[in-house]
Design a protein that fits this description.
By secondary structure, this protein is α/β, with parallel strands linked by helices. Helix content is 23%, strand content 25%. One zinc ion is lined by residues 16, 43, 82, 84-85, 172-173, 229.
Amino acid sequence: MSETTHTLTFLGTGASCGVPSFYCGCKACDEARQNPLAARDCSDLLISGTQNTLIDAAPELRLQLIREQVGSIDQLVVTHGHFDHIGGIPQLEYYVKLRAGAPVPVYAGQQTMETIKRQFGFMIDALDLNQLAVFQTIELDGVSYTALPATHGGDAFGYLIRTSVTKAAYFPDTGPLPVEVLAYLDDLDLLIVDSTFCGRNWMPHSHHSVDEAVKLSQQLQAKKTYLTHLSMHYDTPTTLVELKRQLSGYGGAIQVAYDGLRIGI
Ligand SMILES: [Zn+2]
Ligand SMILES: [Zn+2]
Ligand SMILES: [Zn+2]
C-alpha cells in the first residue's frame, strides 16, 4: 500500500449508553471502570490531513478533543440526528465565537439537518449547514465522502471515505445494508461497522450484532474491519478480553476499535 495521507482517529467507539454505563454493574462495565482502555464514549471519528474533519459529534466531544490534543475543527460531517451523534455540536459554539471567527460547515441529510436546527437553534449562527443528498459525494481536505443510505430510520447515512490510497466505509449505526449500498463496498481496505449488540440483536432492523458485523466483513471481503458502536453489555455482557479472544481466529483482519485508536488512511 502507498503511503497514507490522512489519520483517522476513533474519538469514541461506544453505543449511546457508553461503557461503562453509570447504572450498570455487569462484568463489561466493571472491566471498563478498572481499565480505561476498555471504556467507550459515544461513537465519532476525526479525519486529519491539513484540516480536521469530524464525523459526528458525540456528547463527550469536548473531552475527546482535549484528550486527542485537537485545537481546531474545520468541518463536521454527520451520519444522523440521534443524540449520541450530534449531542456534542454545542461544544462548537464558543469555538466559533471566540476562535474560528466563521461558522463551522456542517454536512448532513435533510432530516438530520432539520433535527440540528430544531435542537440547536440557539447557536445556529455558528453553523454553516449544507444539505447532502443520498449518494452525493463531497470532497473535503483531499478526502471524498459519499453519503450512502444506512438502515437506521430517517435519512441516516453511512459514508464511503476515500483518500488517494484508502477506500473505507463508516457505518456506525445500521441494520442490514441495502443491496444498492453493498455495490459501493467492494474492494474495501477498511470497514468500520456497527456492532452494537453482543449476543442477541434487540434491534435487527437498525443495528448489527458482533456476529452480524463479522458476517458482513466476510461477505464484503474487507481487508480490515474495525467493530465500533459497541454496547458490550447488551444482550450478553462481554468483556473486551472475551471479545478479543472471540475475534482472534480472524488473523487480525477483524478487530475491536477503541477510543483513541489512530490509523493511517
Ligand atoms: Zn454493563
Ligand atoms: Zn442512531
Ligand atoms: Zn448511535
